From TrEMBL:
The chain crosses the membrane at residues 34-57, 69-87, 99-121, 133-150, 162-180, 186-204, 225-246, 252-269, 290-313, 325-342, 354-373, 385-404, 425-444, 487-506. PANTHER family: COMD, MAJOR FACILITATOR SUPERFAMILY. Coiled coil: none annotated. It is a multi-pass membrane protein. GO terms for molecular function: transmembrane transporter activity. Pfam families: MFS_1. InterPro entries: EmrB-like, MFS, MFS_dom, MFS_trans_sf. This is Drug resistance transporter, EmrB/QacA subfamily. Residues 1-22 are annotated as: Disordered.
Length: 526
């Protein structure tokens, strides 16, 4: 299959000028199709790695114990993928995407092996951290490959498809995990990735060329370490403060002091580094600022909705756990559909600025409608609201990456692409934490007085509610809805700010479509 090889070296096909290209030839259709299928497969592999474990957590606890630390099975993966993504993106810029993707697949599968054979919960958490390092690298570097093999005008369609894969995996992952737990055992949710990972490794080895140039590079180890510390503290504060530990506790205070120190140290290190892991000049580019502001804010709304809607459906609407997850399909259908349509629109017109503004306006409307749901709200209406939320999220994912890739110097494509995922995940972590604190306060106000014997009202279940007398039961269900309403109100405010932030995007020329006989202009420097 030598004829299918194509270089993913950012410098191989151009005399590097420091500017992004707007006119570059697409590979032949057969090669392109094979590359995109492989990239989509690796993205699916990584994104399902985060969600497939959720439905297996009860069984894992019954086998390994450690209920108090079970949340770390999810948090460890999220933390590792967040901190590993920008470093992997930088390595891809320096040494080529192929070697980084191959290494990331190896790390991901090794982490999965550790998880699959884990005799203790601590080993499982360590394996999830290793798996997250590989998964975060796979997500960002696979998306950067698209920018290496396609001209900017054609990237919209491909990035829309990849964003659809990401949304699809969010729904499919828990379903696959639940099916494997019931049919075999929870160990197989980690082993099932091996055939897919090995197949992706083989195809990548035969379709992508290694970096052609042998330019020596100097890795920014100090900046990488400080960025890792900074992102880790942000994610840990979001996941631990106010829930596992009180805000006034020593661990949280230590993290609150460490975060600004790491930020100052990181900025200082990046100013002096020969090849900074996250070049500060990128933050001066308007589209980089605007797109990642939208990514951060939409991440808050997206992950907050995913985290709390199943709980509402199970307790207030008496929907079983599996069906409560399936109702999120409505949200993901809107996300996948509009992400795909947005990609097609970008490739057909070369325009993208209007898309995130319209979609975040719809997201604001959807979140406002979510504030109205309660015990008497018909399920079809809730499904419609979730669908609107998905419509509001979808275009921002593909447009964010396309606008960043079209605006930054080509030698920073990897780290620029990584930034989109990084800001979205950090937004999701912080959003889930903030929404969780709001929800806890709401439960204390609206539900706790009705159930004084229940110490941990956050652990309220539908069976507990069913045992109440009808009058108290109705009041508790309404109180639960009232506790959730402020979450969606804050989500609507966040979405409105994202809508305003999206108006700062500059419509950079993307060049002609692949079918156009004319050659486009190069994107001007910003």
């Amino acid at each position: 299959m030598q004829e299918h090889e194509i270089s993913t070296n950012p410098k191989a096909s151009e005399a590097h000028s420091g500017l992004p290209l707007t006119d570059m030839p697409s590979p032949d259709p057969a090669t392109l199709r094979l590359i995109l299928i492989t990239v989509a497969t690796t993205l699916f592999l990584a994104s399902t790695g985060n969600t497939i474990v959720t439905t297996a957590l009860p069984k894992i606890v019954s086998d390994l114990g450690g209920l108090a630390h079970i949340s770390w099975v999810v948090t460890a993966y999220l933390l590792a993928s967040t901190v590993g993504a920008p470093i992997a993106g930088k390595l891809g810029d320096m040494y080529g995407r192929k070697i980084v993707l191959q290494s990331a697949i190896g790390v991901f599968l090794f982490g999965g092996l550790l998880c699959g054979i884990a005799p203790t919960l601590e080993t499982l958490i360590a394996g999830r951290f290793v798996q997250g390092l590989g998964g975060g690298a796979l997500i960002v570097v696979s998306m950067a490959v698209v920018a290496d093999v396609l001209p900017p005008r054609e990237r919209g369609r491909a990035q829309g498809t990849l964003s659809s894969v990401f949304g699809f995996s969010t729904v499919v992952g828990p379903l696959i995990g639940g099916a494997l737990v019931q049919a075999v055992s929870w160990h197989w949710i980690f082993f099932v990735n091996f055939p897919v990972g090995i197949a992706a490794f083989v195809i990548l080895s035969r379709t992508l060329k290694p970096q052609a140039d042998r330019v020596p590079h100097k890795m920014d180890f100090v900046g990488s370490a400080l960025l890792l510390i900074l992102l880790s503290t942000c994610v840990l504060i979001a996941n631990l403060a106010g829930t596992v530990y009180a805000w006034s506790s020593l661990p949280v205070l230590f993290l609150l002091v460490l975060a600004p120190m790491a930020l100052v140290g990181f900025i200082s290190a990046e100013r002096r580094a020969a090849e900074p892991v996250m070049p500060l000049d990128l933050f001066r580019i308007r589209n980089f600022q605007a797109a990642n502001s939208v990514n951060f804010l939409v991440g808050m709304a997206m992950f907050g909705t995913i985290a709390f809607m199943p709980m509402f459906l199970q307790i207030v609407k008496h929907v079983d756990p599996v069906r409560s997850g399936l109702y999120l399909v409505a949200m993901m259908t809107g996300l996948i559909g509009t992400s795909f349509v947005a990609g097609r629109f970008i490739s057909a017109t070369g325009r993208y600025k209007i898309l995130p503004t319209l979609s975040t306006a719809i997201l604001t409307l959807g979140m406002l409608l979510m504030t109205t749901i309660g015990p008497d709200t018909p399920m079809p209406l809730i499904t419609l609201y979730l669908f609107l939320v998905g419509i509001g999220i979808g275009p921002t994912m593909s447009v964010g990456i396309v606008s960043i890739q079209a605006s930054i110097p080509r030698q920073h494509l990897g780290v620029g692409t990584a930034s989109a995922n990084m800001f979205r995940l950090i937004g999701g972590s912080i959003g889930t934490s903030v929404f969780g604190a709001i929800f806890t306060m709401g439960l204390g106000t609206h539900v706790q007085p009705l159930m004084p014997r229940v110490r941990e009202v956050r652990e309220l279940t539908s069976s507990m509610v069913d045992q109440l007398d009808p009058a108290t039961q109705a009041a508790v269900l309404q109180g639960f809805s009232d506790a959730l309403s402020p979450i969606f109100m804050v989500g609507a405010a966040v979405a409105a700010v994202a809508c305003l932030a999206s108006t700062r995007l500059i419509e950079m020329p993307l060049g002609p479509s692949a079918s156009s006989p004319r050659r486009g202009q190069e994107t001007p420097a910003e």
